[in-house]
Structure formats: structure tokens, C-alpha cells
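Ticket closed. Logging final result for IS4 family transposase.
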Amino acid sequence: MDQIAITRTVTVAAWPFAAGHLGELTRLLPFEMIDEVLTATRRTQQRIRLLPARVVVYLLIAGCLFADLGYQRVWSKLVAGLHPLPVPDPSGSALRQARQRLGPAPMRALFELLRGPAATSAATVWWRGLMPVVIDGTVLTVADSPANLLRYAKQRGNNGGSGYPTLRLSALLACGTRSVLDAVFDPLSTGEIAQAHHLARSLRSGMLLLGDRNYASADLITRIAATGADLLIRCKSSRKLPVLGRYPDGSWLSTVNGLRVRVVDARISITTTSGSHTGDYRLITTLLDARRHPAGDLARLYHQRWEIETAYLELKSSILGGRVLRARTPDGIDQEIHALLITYQLLRTAMADATDSRPGLDPDRASFTTALNAARDQIILAAGVIADTVIDLVGAIGERVLANLLPDRRVRTKTRMIKRSNSKYQARGPNIDRRTYKATTNIDVITNEP
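Final structure:
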């Protein structure tokens, strides 16, 4: 009798997480996919537990949505809308042991299934038949624990260090939808160039990779070109490149490591009511047809490289709220980062589905914060469990996004600038102008001999 009672309780408690407790997120991450991953990674529970492996996966996703809460409070959010269904009340220790039993492999495998460009018919995600994608790296802070310190070192600073260990995360994103194509993370001793060589596995013909000056390495350029993808990468203006020929638009033909490339020297001026700022850019591209890909248009396109800065802001500020990753072991960090990337990808997929339901709507009009808050509400309200909620292709998150569209994007000159510092110790000084201006951008291709 005791065994039957336990089985019944576990089945009822686990069912909401498999049958729609996360609302639209469960549609985007169906329990059948999770079960297949658990089977493939051999993490399916061997006996009946209060916290089956499938439930722990959804717990990790919810933990990213509520990054400011401990896992016991995250669990309370998960079951808040399930009254009067019988649900377990696990201790913090039980939740920790369940995450440890699961390990990082299932979350890693789930990310491999979910990563990739979001499906959309929006014309703005393409540029002259190519999909612009962008690569860049960032730094994440992890918990200061003995286990983490064995793998992740503290960053040096003016006062002896940051206080917390850090790691380097590099990602490959689709510019139009900001969906994650691939990602990799390592200790800071691994540089962005080494991580870029790894991420090159996800580049394909028909993609156009945008990158900053850090990625202008000759070996990396050759590696990218070998994938069939094209590239548009900035390099130092002082870099000496041979001039093999001139194009009518002012660009010129050259070679990098034996690879024929086209070089564009552009002077970009941004004018506001407060004055003008001018900078010179040298871009290297494998797009050699100047009539199909004019130099001025390439210089304008390069601005989309900043899409990844916005994505990192959404990951580190909107989702994490600037907080340190909570896991206290390297395996836990692996599990948490992949859960974070999965959560971000699910939200981006829901946003792309929503904007795609209205022909001609630019995915840039979708608000990430709106989607994030809608996903949180889905969990708290237990959408699709208590009531017979019908979720269509747009879904509850998408409906909220469509009801709160952003205005057309204005020209940005300082993507990372914050208007109010979170800490007086992080403020950059009283003389920084944080006002918003209407800006006019002027691009001139420089035709002087290099």
C-alpha cells in the first residue's frame, strides 16, 4: 500500500511539468524531447523519486527565469498554481542532490538540439540572400567556491582582483532574430580566437559572419572561409595588405594568408545636436563582387555586429540581473550555463513565432523583457494545467509580445552605455552624457592609396 501511495503521488506531481505546466515553454520544449535526451545520456531515473529527471530539467529552466531566487523558492513558484493537486515539498538538500544526479550532460544535449536560427519568413533577417551572423565573447562571474577555483581563476584588477572567479563565453548568433547558433565557454586562459575556431563548426554556406578586430587573425579567416561561409570582419587600419586591384566603388582586392579578399576603408561620421564623431574603419570581406555587394552597403551592414552586445545584455542583465552564477562546482556551472542558453533560445523562438505571425513585422520590434516576464507568469499561473487552456502557434508569450511591440529601432551610437549605474563604485564619472539624441550617420568610402 505504501508503494502504491508513493507512486500515485509522484505521478500526479510530475504530470503538470510534462503536460503543460510551463505553458508555451512546454510547447517549445516538449517532454518527449526531454525524455529522449535523458535516455540518450542515460540519466533517466532508475527508481521512483519525488523529483524525476524530467522535472529537474524544468526546474533548471525555471531557475533561470527566477535567477534571483534560491531553488526552494523556485520550486514554490513552480507549484504555486497547482493547488489543490498533491505535490512534494522537497528540501534544499533534495533539490541539490537531484541536480547533481542529473549532471550537465542532458542540458548540454538539449542545447545541441535547440541551437540554430529561429524559423522566420521575415525579410529583414537576410541581406542580399545571405544570413548575417555575428561572433563575440563575454565574461561571466561564477560562485567563489573551492571547487570552482580549481577550474576558473579570478580576474586581475586594480585592487587585486574581481573577488569572484570568471569564465569566458563566446557565442555565434543570427543577427536578425538573435537566436543562438552555437556557444562555448572555458576558463579565461582560453582566448576568443581559440573559441572562434570551435564555433566555426556551425558556419555554413549562405551565412555572412560579422566580427570585430579581435577576429581578424589570418588563420581564423582561412578557417572561416573553409566552411563555405562569407565574412565581414574589421581589422586595424594600420594593417599592411597588398593591393592587387581596385574596384569602382573604392574598395580593393588583396590577400590574407593566400585567400583572396576585398578591403573596404570607410569613414563613418555620426552627427547629433551635441556634435559629430568620426572614425575610420577597415573591413575585410570574402564578398568579391562589388556590383552585388557595394562597399558602402557593407559598411552599413557591419553595424549589425552590435546585435550580439544586445543579446549579452539580455543574458547578463535581463535574465541574471547582474548576479553571479549560483552553481558551486564546475559540473554545476556547465549545467547552469546550458540551462541559461536553453532558456534564452526558447524565449527567442517564441518571439520569432510571434512576429512571424504578422507578415512584414520586423523581429526587432519584439521586446525580450516582455517575453521574459510573460514566461515567468506562465509558470506562476500554471497555465494549461488547472484550466483547459488552448495554446496556439503564437502562444501566451507571443500574444504578450505582440501587444507590447517596441517602436522602430533608432540609430544607436553607444550600445553598452547605461543611464544609471547599479553601484556608485561602478559609475564612470559625473561628466558622462547619458542623454538620448537623434543621430544621423554618414558613410564615405576612402579611396586613397593605402
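Residues 173 and 180 are 5 Å apart (CA to CA). No further action required.
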